[in-house]
From TrEMBL:
GO terms for biological process: D-gluconate metabolic process; pentose-phosphate shunt. This is 6-phosphogluconate dehydrogenase, decarboxylating. SMART domains: 6PGD (SM01350). NADP(+) binds at G8, L9, A10, V11, M12, G13, N31, R32, T33, V73, K74, A75, N101. Substrate binds at N101, S127, G128, G129, H184, N185, Y189, K259, R286, R442, H448. The keyword NADP applies. InterPro entries: 6-PGluconate_DH-like_C_sf, 6PGD_dom2, 6PGDH_C, 6PGDH_Gnd/GntZ, 6PGDH_NADP-bd, 6PGdom_BS, NAD(P)-bd_dom_sf, Pgluconate_DH. Catalyzes the oxidative decarboxylation of 6-phosphogluconate to ribulose 5-phosphate and CO(2), with concomitant reduction of NADP to NADPH. The gene is gndA. The active site is at K181 (proton acceptor), E188 (proton donor).
Amino acid sequence: MSQIGVTGLAVMGANLARNIARNGVPIAVHNRTASKTKDFMDEFSGEGDFTGTETLQEFVEALERPRRIIVMVKAGAPVDGVIADLEPLLDKDDIIIDAGNSHYVDTRRREEELTAKGLRFIGSGVSGGEEGALNGPSIMPGGPREAYGEVEEIFTTIAAQVDGSPCCAYIGPDGAGHYVKMVHNGIEYADMQLIAEAYDLLRHGIGLDVPAIKAIFDDWNRGDLESFLIEITATVLDKVDAETGKPLIDVIVDQAEQKGTGRWTAQDALELGVPLTGITEAVFARSLSALRDQRRDASGVLAGPKPGGLPESLVDDIRAALYASKVVAYAQGFEQMAAAAKTYNWDLKMGELAKIWRGGCIIRARFLNRITESYDAHPDLVNLLMAPYFQDAVASAQDAWRKVIVSAVEQGVAVPAFSSSLAYYDGYRRERGPANLIQGQRDFFGAHTYRRVDKDGSFHTRWSQDGTEVRTD
Ligand SMILES: NC(=O)C1=CN([C@@H]2O[C@H](COP(=O)(O)OP(=O)(O)OC[C@H]3O[C@@H](n4cnc5c(N)ncnc54)[C@H](OP(=O)(O)O)[C@@H]3O)[C@@H](O)[C@H]2O)C=CC1
Ligand SMILES: O=C(CO)[C@H](O)[C@H](O)COP(=O)(O)O
């Protein structure tokens, strides 16, 4: 009998199944299109103790009880479809693990529905792409604690290991695991956008060629920016197109697609009232990139400076701006998770989250150690920017950060994530901002009232009458 099963043998499911089998766990595999299961078995069955199955019935019958079934199919309706097909074949206490990028709202609903039917449901984030799934992903499981206990050994064994710790930890009940994965992906969007803005400035602001920029990213990857995304940026820039002989980057269409996790993160931040500017700008930047035809037309019509001619001495300032903006994106993402924890009554441990993102996942980076250390030293930290390490890091980067944004604005190079991150930083460090004026305007046109700095209560000025102030509470 197999100890666990995976249904959904595309990139993620196939590699996760191989990872589990390579770790000595007998596993049953299934895919809606049975020919893919056959292909999988033909290619990989020698790697471990696999049982290939054609139907869901066979799949379920191949598993020890209580059954543990990982569903790794396209997020959304397909997950509901697979669960609906599995349900009549399962017994009380069997465990379904949705390991795809499901929306946490769906996960909360599915957990409630399946619990009512006597089944157990784990919604687990898995990050690392194809290579991570095979060799060790970062895993973010949510759901009933006792159900997690029954998959913990397998999950912690197959996860990436950093400094002897698995990049897998129980996140919390119902949708907590998928929530944390959603924010992970939001941060991934921000990180990628910031890198793209740095590339744009190097390429079009300073005018460096692709090999020179590749060397810069290699160099940055040896310092405090060291991360998977910086490393693969250099690799992508190094690739030459076999057909044209040009750098591949120059023949890739400049439209960024998106499957939804970044958008959900931004939407959720709006609901929670968290100022998630970096990630949201990154989502909008992908939307703007999608308007390729409009941009082509506008490029010949709308006035503005032509980029070029920035000094090469700006390279290190761009590195500093990238680092500071990245700190802001993470600070905002962690603030959002703290707000969600309060809303949903989840006991999210911020230092632990940074720890399980140190390996296996797309946003793995050297500076996640610093985040863990900051939360360990200051468990009640309200904002990462307030941690002494990050206060100092941003303080020493900020002259360069401002200089880069000024240069970009003068050059007409759009840097929405760099500049919105700095705007957040400047807004956050102001004891008194300009929202008093907004309150005055709201009270003027809608009698929405305002509070005063010098006494308690709500007040309204009779703007259109005698101009006197009245207390309204
Ligand atoms: N690709 C990546 O880098 C990452 C992906 N993820 C997430 O992991 C999950 C799997 O991703 P990935 O491996 O890329 O695969 P895809 O998201 O491309 O999904 C393809 C798989 O879903 C199955 N499927 C689609 N519709 C249905 C349906 N209605 N009923 C049953 N099965 C269905 C397909 O079966 P069939 O062969 O029959 O079409 C196939 O096995 C997704 O939620 C994704 O967002 C998470 C981290 C990284
Ligand atoms: O989850 C992932 C990595 O952690 C996926 O790679 C992610 O789905 C990619 O998202 P998008 O297609 O929206 O860029």
